[in-house]
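Record 1 of the preview.
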Amino acid sequence: MTALLKPVSVTVGADGAPAQSGEPRMVFVNPMRVGSQSWAAARSAGLHADAQVQLRSCDYAGEQEVTIDGVPYDVERVADRGEFTTLTLARRVRSGAQQKSQQG
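->
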């Protein structure tokens, strides 16, 4: 399975609008099951745990946005375990303003 990692650094463009620097890139990830203990631990820490993936540590550069199968996620937690890094992901939620404009 592959995931699209989006760069975390944001710059201000010439027009004053924020722009991401760097290109999104595809990396190989291993999907992991979010067990009840992981889900409960994330909830107790105030985090969401909708998905977990494991990737090689050398492939992760601090990105905070991940897209898997067209679904955007925010990175909630990073666990670096040497050669591999586990990302706990939460589905991105659209703001009410965006949802209303799409419905109307």
